[in-house]
Design brief:
It is built from eleven helices and twelve strands. By secondary structure, it is α/β, with parallel strands linked by helices. The chain has two domains: 88 residues, Enolase-like, N-terminal domain (Enolase-like, domain 1); 212 residues, Enolase-like C-terminal domain (TIM Barrel), CATH 3.20.20.120. The strands form three sheets. It has a seven-stranded parallel β-sheet. It has a three-stranded antiparallel β-sheet with strand order 1-2-3, with helices on both faces. Helix 8 links the parallel strand 10 and strand 11. Helix 2 packs parallel to helix 3 and helix 8 runs parallel beside helix 9. The chain is globular. The chain starts with a strand and ends with a helix.
Length: 317
Amino acid sequence: MIRVYSTPLRARFRGLTSRDGVLLRGPAGWGEFSPFWDYDDAECVPWLRGAVEAATLPFPDALRDRVAVNATVPAVDPATAHRIVATSGCSTAKVKVAQAGQTLTDDLDRVAAVRDALGPAGAIRVDANAAWSLPQAADALPRLDRAAGGLQYAEQPVASVADLARLRRTVTVPLAADESIRRAADPLEVKRRQAADIVVLKVQPLGGVRACLELAAAIDLPVVVSSALESSVGIAQGVALAAALPGIELASGLATVRLFERDAAPRPLLPVDGFLPVGRVEPRPMEPPRGEPAAAWLGRLDRVAALAGLDLTEVLA
């Protein structure tokens, strides 16, 4: 069974105002295939493998029945940032920075508002999505660290692994690698160059829960499991990974369904007291795919399945 979903977002996130994707049902349950539209078909292959794994295989054994998550703060004004965190129930917040069209002052004010909402004991992490140059990051991070009263880490402040390694030797803020893992030909380069203190793993872009468990073991650095802005069906795959990782201590970035105006599931996977439960998610009944957006997704699905050597009719039966 194949269903297409689409929803507006409550605030612009990663440059997006809406989110869409495909849900696949197989013998084990539902999986999600929702690569961003700036990914070419070849880059989408691991996303499809992750969806097929979720639909056809049981999740790995869980070591815990719930996982701690962070509140996610888009590049919004300080008052909105304060409200998001204050109503989240989370003790950790990830704040988007380096948004196109905004300034460092905007970022500093947003981070200060988040600190006020969290109080002194909460943890703040920032995510620049590789938008800074090396000099910009070296200037911004100490200032953001002061505004936050101490940052837990900065996620992918610069684009290249080489610059990430140089920056790590320049600033005292711990660095996390995201794009340098999930969009890299060689994700282990981060470890060889000692370019990060933490790695961010996202289930879909890396080919599924089991592939992420293998990668985490190979990199052997602290892990944060994060969302690729999926519906609750895809978020459940991330929760399954976080629940199966031994020794995970940092809150996962999986509370992003709050950003959706309308989730694909009748009971959205939203945190309670800063935690998400482990388990499968059943989407709401949906009409069969139709119209131009659905046709675009179904065509993409067919092309990517051909590249992956997958007969979806057979594997999902």
